[in-house]
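Residues and backbone
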Amino acid sequence: MPLDLTARSDRAPLRVAGVDEAGRGPLAGPVVVAAVVFAPGRTPINGLDDSKALTPERRETLYERIIERAVAWHVEFVSSDEIDRINIYHATMAGMQRAITCVSHLIDVARVDGNALPRSLPCLAEAWIGGDARDRSIMAASILAKVSRDRYMRRLHEQWPLYGFDQHKGYSTPVHLAALSQHGPCPEHRRSFEPVRMAIRAEDGQLEAMFTSAPAP
């Protein structure tokens, strides 16, 4: 929906939901989208920044302050299955749409980090390139999304310790790629991503070679 607030007859400050995501690039786990609404005026939290510019310890501290002081917030997890089904771009847009919908009754506009907006939003919206360095509500959303996803990946490590998800959070590090090559993918790997497809093809090839080389009964 194009942003047009010129029809507003009052001079009240805009009620804004900042929206950002974490986890578009990893080979495993969900993409996570957060929406954060602060009361209009001065943001009640010091030290906000793009989550990538903060240490993990600082993000954890700010996470608790954000959920305590925000008017509303929502974190949406989009599974690896949905990512594989509709691709990472559309999965991210779907997550943003759902996150915005959950807070739309409290806002005038959703402000999304990036250059694209989801379709069928229930409110006005605008895309802000570099928004996670410009808008404090987007900064807060980036922190909620990043911390929520990192926590999820640490829990995933407990279930699938062979891959080291607690260290690389699913990104394609040499350690992760080596584990993927050695063990093949787990159910949380994104099968539409090329390194995972390559691991599946290699695994299928090894199985085929085993059956081919097996002696006849």
The chain has seven helices and five strands.
